[in-house]
Write a structure and sequence with these properties.
The protein is an alpha/beta fold and 238 residues long. It has one domain: Rossmann fold. It contains eight helices and six strands, in the order αβαβαβααβααββα. Strands 1, 2, 3, 4, 5 and 6 form a six-stranded parallel β-sheet that branches. Strand 1, helix 2 and strand 2 form a beta-alpha-beta unit. The longest helix is centred in the last third of the chain and has 26 residues. The model has no long low-confidence stretch (mean pLDDT 88).
């Protein structure tokens, strides 16, 4: 009886070994795609250049890939001269083509407000995305806004609100800042940010630069936006 049990045990081990050796190896996990975020900067006096750099630092902390572009200006040199614009501040940035948006998982627009809405150059850029709309190329991308105004209550919130319809028509997901930072509720100084996004107040003559709090909020927005986009991309890859 003991010899029979030994033979059965050996047979079982051989069968188990055979099944293990012939089982197909598990396919290696596909590498997770790194999220990519574009920064679209339109700045005449440098405020949004500074804000975009803070956003970029936050995106870097979130571990996402980012690239900064300038939006092509449609204003004439004569008009820009009368506005005392300093376009040299963005001269080294590549001009973004509308089709380039499709290469990114999300984008943040950094532009000063004009009468409670986006500047004409930014609106003109959006108007050139018809081909992307026809292909659904921007569906499920993510977007956020950073802006600046000349005065307190100068239109930062309405700039976001009047741009959301563009996002809706493309199926782009708006990622607001929310009241995530105590700086948004401070009473010891004027802060431009709102739940819709980071902002700074420049003063009527543009002499007021982004404050430490403005830049901190912009960095936090970049970090949280990057984390949100990255989480979405990981979910799609799972």
């Amino acid at each position: 009886m003991s010899k029979l049990l030994q033979r059965l045990s050996l047979s079982s081990k051989k069968s188990s070994s055979s099944s293990i050796s012939t089982a197909p190896a598990a396919a290696p996990a596909a590498p997770v795609k790194m999220a990519k975020v574009a920064l679209l900067v339109y700045s005449l006096y440098g405020h949004q250049v500074a804000m975009s750099k803070a956003v970029e630092a936050g995106l870097k902390e979130a571990g996402v890939e980012s690239k900064t572009f300038q939006v092509r200006d449609i204003l004439s040199e004569e008009v820009l001269g009368k506005m005392h614009a300093n376009k040299s501040l963005t001269a080294d940035l590549p001009v973004i083509d509308p089709d380039t948006l499709a290469e990114f998982d999300g984008f943040i627009v950094c532009a000063g407000t004009r009468y409670g809405r986006q500047p004409a150059s930014v609106s003109a850029f959006f108007d050139q995305t018809g081909g992307l709309w026809a292909r659904g190329a921007l569906k499920n991308k993510m977007a956020g806004f950073v802006t600046s105004t000349g005065s307190q209550h100068g239109g930062a919130e309405t700039t976001a609100l009047t741009t959301i319809p563009f996002l809706a028509h493309h199926g782009i997901i708006f990622v607001p800042l929310g009241f995530t930072q105590p700086e948004l509720s401070t009473l010891d100084e004027i802060v431009g940010a709102s739940a819709y996004g980071a902002a700074t107040i420049t003063g009527g003559d543009g002499s007021r630069q982004p404050t430490e709090k403005d830049l901190k909020v912009a960095k936090v927005q970049g970090k949280e936006f990057g984390e949100t986009v990255a989480q979405f991309i990981r979910g799609k890859s799972a």
